Amino acid sequence: MLRADLLDRPRHGRIRLHGRWLHFPLKPADLMLHVTPQFALGVLADMAVTPARRNRVETFASVLEQNLGRTICREFYFPYAEKIWGLPAEDLAVEQARRRVAAGSLAKMARRVLSAIPGLKPAGSGRFFYPRKGYGQISEAYYEAATRAGADVHLGESLQRVEVDRHRASAVVTSAASGEPRYRATQVLSTIPLPVLARAITPEAPAGVLHAADALRYRSMILIYLVLDADRFTEFDAHYFPGKDVPITRLSEPKNYGLTNLAGTTALCAELPCAVGDASWVAGDDELAAMLVDALAKVGLRVSARVRRVVTRRLTHAYPIYTRTYQADFDVVDRFVASVEGIVTFGRQGLFAHDNTHHTLAMAYAANDCLDDEGRLDRAKWADARRSFESHVVED
Ligand SMILES: Cc1cc2nc3c(=O)[nH]c(=O)nc-3n(C[C@H](O)[C@H](O)[C@H](O)COP(=O)(O)OP(=O)(O)OC[C@H]3O[C@@H](n4cnc5c(N)ncnc54)[C@H](O)[C@@H]3O)c2cc1C
């Protein structure tokens, strides 16, 4: 059992909706407790007409609108979805709604609202645990446990190819500072993006598989960090921006999570969804910082303190994009990888899933349970585990 030094505290955020700030104590979906009368009336009117809208082609847009009504979708979910995934809600698969929207019906949303009311609130709800030294503490705890158990960890190496001999994986070749090390393999456990894995399998996959791998697309993201000469920027952990008027989706201030008490300094982290190679992706740090400061000023969050430092991080594979045809492409690639003995793909990138960290850890524990003492996979048991992963729904 891994233990970490955890902080237990309530979450405190704000969301920008139709030009106003709404405070929410729990999650963006709980904003129903705090909306304007105009918004609430819209939702009530939608509840009256929702059952009549049936029998349309099912997409992310149609299913959410049917279940949540026009007001919540048009004001919140649809613009947010387009920013996050880079496609209009109508072009996204219905699966995106099931996996990504925890409060996917008005009834579920009503239950959440009731559970947030003092007196009706279940004990412990609305509280979150944070590793005291940040997210990296989770990886470090696993790294230390793995090395204690005898694992040999090589960081900073990139997969070049997985060699297959008579339908079985036999070796993994990476590129490293020292050259191209080759590791003999009995069982390859892969958590890199599924299309990257499929392309790395040697001899090369059939053309249809490579074509399907190319069709599986991921949304990218730039994390823009501003280090400010100020004790605090705002009192909120996070601000959410579903509207198209602000290019970022979320702004967090980790100091407000209680992770540090350093006087005279705080940092902001902005999440900017984008595509590899687009104008944001190729912009310099100063340009991105200026864009962020400008966008925040427009919504009344002026950065008046001196910006001491700007740091950016580019994530090529932030979110899988569930286009309306993604499932067929995923199945082709997944079947090909499964046809090679000795390779198992899992994790958020490996199964093209939107999962949270606890979901991917559950996958890792399940994979471990499916391996025998020789490191061979029980395929039937793994197929059962894969079915259980389909019930994962993202919490954010
Ligand atoms: C912006 C953002 C915010 C999030 N916030 C939360 C949150 O608040 N709570 C939560 O629970 N989850 C959150 N998540 C999700 C969480 O990060 C993932 O669920 C988790 O990281 C998945 O772990 P994983 O090991 O499956 O994949 P990853 O963490 O993505 O790891 C995959 C690894 O593969 C490596 N890789 C890729 N290609 C190659 C290659 N060719 N060769 C070698 N290595 C390669 C990558 O470098 C990476 O280290 C967030 C995700 C994003 C993008």
Structure description:
- There is one protein chain.
- The chain contains 14 helices and 15 strands.
- The protein has 396 residues and is an alpha+beta fold.
- The chain has three domains: 26-116, protoporphyrinogen ix oxidase, domain 3, CATH 1.10.3110; 154-216 and 323-389, FAD/NAD(P)-binding domain (3-Layer(bba) Sandwich), CATH 3.50.50; 218-320, Polyamine Oxidase, Chain A, domain 2 (Alpha-Beta Complex), CATH 3.90.660.
- It has a seven-stranded mixed sheet with strand order 3-2-11-12-13-10-14. A four-stranded mixed sheet has the order 7-6-5-9.
- It binds flavin-adenine dinucleotide.
- Residues 158-159, 191-193, 196, 221, 271, 315, 318, 347-349, 355-358, 360 line the site of flavin-adenine dinucleotide.
Radius of gyration: 23 Å
How helix-rich are the residues, as a percent range? 25-40%
Instruction: Examine the secondary-structure arrangement and name the CATH architecture of the largest domain.
Output: 3-Layer(bba) Sandwich
Q: Which compounds are bound in this model?
A: flavin-adenine dinucleotide
Estimate the strand proportion.
Answer: 15-25%
Tell me the total number of β-strands. Answer: 15
Adjacency order of strands in the biggest sheet? 3-2-11-12-13-10-14
**Overall tally of structural domains:** 3
- Give the CATH class of the largest domain: Alpha Beta
Mean pLDDT: 87
CATH fold descriptor of the largest domain: FAD/NAD(P)-binding domain
Low-confidence stretches: none
Describe the structure concisely for a colleague:
With 396 residues, the protein is α+β, with helices and mostly antiparallel strands.
